[in-house]
Design goal:
366 residues, alpha/beta, abc type-2 transporter like fold
Length: 366
């Protein structure tokens, strides 16, 4: 079996090398996505513009303005003598928010009562506004802690963020890209494999060749798995040594989980490919499936935010389980039991998808 299987695998790699466009997608695309997503795709708010209407000349208003101007997320501030023109600045997106400090702000604090500050946000940028509000609230809380009078500017809270104390978004984004960029090459190769044979007219040669159905399936499956493992391992290495992300889990368990993950994805790709007659059809099927898999994986939004019925359906998504493993391996010391709790569903999904692909490919050959 090893001889025919080896020749089948070599044939797949030769076909890939002779297709420069596909090769560029497999090699260059993951690296470009890592560089772009890790820096551009971020929920952090940076370089914002703030308008400040300060009607108070007292000590505490000046201190608040100084802290706002020196905040790391603020690019520039515009101090206005009055609220005139403020509506135009927000309407034209010149500022994200305006801070209105009333005339009695410092006097209220010195008298022991609450000093109130009004924040006016651009509601068209709701996510950025919500995150910026938490930043502003943090500045106000810090100022409140410095007040000896005990006056309360805003309700204060003490927060600690386990596993990511500084809320560095890259610590979430880069590990998540391990799952995303390991998925893409294996999905692309497996989805196009059988469809390419049909489109090029070489599928009938497989039927009459001295190769068993199992060897054909493994010959299509193993190169895709190798590409996915190579891409995922490269991202892990870059995340640890180039980006300096902490890794607290077990590397062997992570690589084992990745192997099961890419096998299950390859099974889905072969299942799609066995039902397509052209590479264009296969690519459209892959595109629709990738969107569905990544949308429900927890990469874009938490799974807990989804309806309960959808959370049950998401359990059949291998990317969801691998995302939990890879994030837990990087950001916390994920125990073996926790890894296995996410590994066995992926193994079941892999058995089902590979078996389904084997059945459909075998039926196509006979």
């Amino acid at each position: 079996m090893l001889g025919p299987l080896r020749h089948t695998i070599i044939k797949e790699f030769i076909t890939l090398i002779r297709d420069p466009a596909t090769l560029r997608v497999l090699v260059a695309a993951p690296l470009m996505q890592l560089l772009i997503f890790s820096f551009a795709a971020s929920m952090e708010v940076r370089n914002i513009h703030i308008a400040i209407v300060n009607e108070d000349s007292g000590r505490w208003s000046q201190e608040l303005v100084r802290r706002l101007e020196s905040a790391s997320f603020v690019d520039s501030t515009v101090v206005l003598p009055s609220s005139y023109g403020l509506e135009k600045m927000i309407d034209q997106r010149q500022v994200l928010l305006a801070v209105h400090v009333p005339a009695d702000f410092s006097r209220s604090i010195d008298s022991g009562t609450s000093g109130k500050v009004q924040l006016i946000f651009d509601g068209r940028r709701a996510n950025s506004a919500q995150i910026t509000f938490s930043y502003i609230q943090g500045i106000v809380n810090e100022l409140n802690n410095d007040l000896r009078s005990g006056a309360i500017l805003q309700p204060t809270a003490s927060a600690r963020h386990w596993f990511n104390p500084n809320l560095i978004f890259m610590w979430f984004m880069v590990p998540s890209l391990v799952a995303t960029l390991a998925l893409m090459p294996v999905f692309l190769m497996s989805t196009l494999s059988v469809a390419r044979e049909r489109e090029m007219g070489t599928f009938d040669q497989l039927v009459v060749s001295p190769v068993s159905t199992l060897e054909i399936i493994l010959g299509k499956l193993l190169p895709a798995v190798f590409a996915g493992m190579s891409s995922g391992t490269l991202i892990i290495i870059l995340a640890i040594y180039a980006y300096g992300l902490p890794f607290n889990g077990s590397m062997s368990l992570l690589l084992l989980s990745m192997l099961v993950f890419v096998c299950s994805i390859a099974g889905i790709g072969l299942t799609i490919s066995s039902q397509c007659n052209t590479q264009q059809q296969a690519f459209l099927g892959m595109f629709g499936s990738v969107i569905l898999i990544m949308t429900t994986s927890g990469f874009f939004s938490p799974v807990d935010n989804m309806p309960e019925y959808l959370q049950l359906l998401v359990q059949a998504n291998p990317a969801k389980h691998f995302m939990d493993i890879v994030l837990g391996s990087f950001l916390k010391s994920m125990t073996t039991a926790e890894v296995l709790a996410n590994l066995w569903p992926m193994a079941v999904i892999g058995v089902v998808t590979v078996s389904s692909a084997s059945f459909l490919v075998r039926r196509s050959l006979h």
